[in-house]
Amino acid sequence: MATTPAKTVKIEVVVKGNGSQQSLGDCPFTHRVLLALEMKQLPYSMQYIDVDNKPAWLQERFDGKVPLIKFDDNSDYLPDSDAIVKELEARYPQQRTGQQQDAQQIPSRIFPAFRDFLMSKPEDESEKEQALISELTALDNTLKQQEGPFLGGKALNLNDASVAPKLYHLSVALPHFKGWAVPAQLSSLHTYLAEISKTPEWQHTQYGHDVVIRGWERHGALKKEAP
Questions:
Q1: Fewer CB within 10 Å, N- or C-terminus of the chain?
Q2: In 10 A of CB 150, how many CB atoms?
Q3: CA–CA dist 118, 128 (Å, integer)
Q4: Is the peptide bond before 67 cis (omega within 30 degrees of 0)?
Q5: What does the pLDDT profile of the chain (227 residues) look like in tens digits?
Q6: 132 catalytic, yes or no?
Q7: How many CB atoms lie within 10 A of CB 93?
């Protein structure tokens, strides 16, 4: 949990995970919200949701989806990671993050391109792989323009909170299921993945490779057969 800022706040986040083990699930959108909270050093508690036993209120009101966030001003739960991060920035602008990068310059189709390649049939693999490499190359070029290893420069910003969990899924799932790794020539991207894993924000919100792999197995990902 983040350290307490000058103004104490109480925030509850509904997350995918295991309550009895106090362990996070593999949701990159929940991960985004938690990273944003950590970057802003806002204290929060987590309510863990077992995806195999979702409570009725979550099913009925939010279609069973997480993350949700609830603030301490008697407001209702707020869904959707985009809306949540915008609300955090509006409520707590004084808790700054790294340099703000124009969101329009950040490749926006990395996650769908990754998912398409991961789930592709053999006859579609080459096309899907090239689409993913195109997205990753654009991100690598954006990273090369920064003053540090992150999209926020020398410190994480809210674009990092969005992009990093998706890259984590990609860097874990594709080697396991496809025998594929991020091309070595995308050096800034490799540096990014190495450096972000060292940050306290990441270490406070991470979940293991096995969690990512099990999650994609649930979605139907199949391990590529050896030739």
A1: C
A2: 25
A3: 9
A4: yes
A5: 444 443 566 899 999 999 889 899 999 999 999 999 999 999 999 999 999 999 999 999 999 999 999 998 778 999 999 999 999 999 998 765 655 655 446 778 999 999 999 999 999 999 999 999 999 999 999 999 999 999 989 999 999 999 999 999 999 999 999 999 999 999 999 999 999 999 999 999 999 999 999 999 999 888 876 55
A6: no
A7: 9
